[in-house]
Amino acid sequence: MSAIPPGVRPRRLPGARRTGRAALAGAVCAVLAAGLAGCGADEDPDAGTNGVGKLPPAKIQARTRAAAEHADTVHLTGNVVSKGLTYKLDMSLAEHGAKGELTTKAAAFQLLRVGNALYLKADAAFWAGEKSGASGAAQKLGGKYVKVPASDPVYRKFSGFTDKDTLLASLLGLRGKLTAKDRSTVGGVRTVRLAAGAGAGGVLDVSLEGTPYPLRLQRAGGAGVVRLGDWGRRVDLKAPAKDQVVDYGSQISGAH
């Protein structure tokens, strides 16, 4: 191959400039096309999802209720307003029991239900209130698991927080005409938002990934916000050790 003499410019072959410009233009167009596709002007918001976002709102509600009913377990966290009281929930629920903690403005206590046996663990101050100032009994009950008699008002008051089907049925109710237009995320999971009464009747985020479980609920009337997760994850339930249990008999209190 002959060397190019000094000072002599290499001659560009005909068409090379046009080819280079065409390649550059093609690359720019490809980048712009990718960018426009990512901007989502015509992008399907449900692409790669479980498809429930394409369904009518009533069918989305039916699907998410069915998913919740068929799951063996769920973990609930958040705040619930009931009968004028605000409860902070942290409960793991299964088909035949539950465990977790409830917190109110006045007290915090643990709940455990194994089958029909309900146990409540709280400090002495809580039991002093339940026993209308019976400090001796309160000291005995404080820090122990108290096996709550089924006939006692305490059982009726708190057992609903340990019943998966009952609690979900009350929480997942939406009031008003349903719409499902918005998309969001809960814990990094894409959701479709099921709104009732333009949001005033509650807003439920339903998973667009995998099983269409309900993941977050804004309750109607500002009655709390609850997150639902760990669907189907095992919940270990067993009765407390005998030395940690106080069986108080047929009645704990008549105060509530």
From TrEMBL:
The organism's place on the tree of life at top rank: Bacteria
Secretion signal, residue range per the UniProt entry: 1-33
Record carries keyword Lipoprotein: yes
Keywords tagged on the record: Lipoprotein, Signal
UniProt protein name: Lipoprotein
The organism of origin for this protein: Streptomyces nigrescens
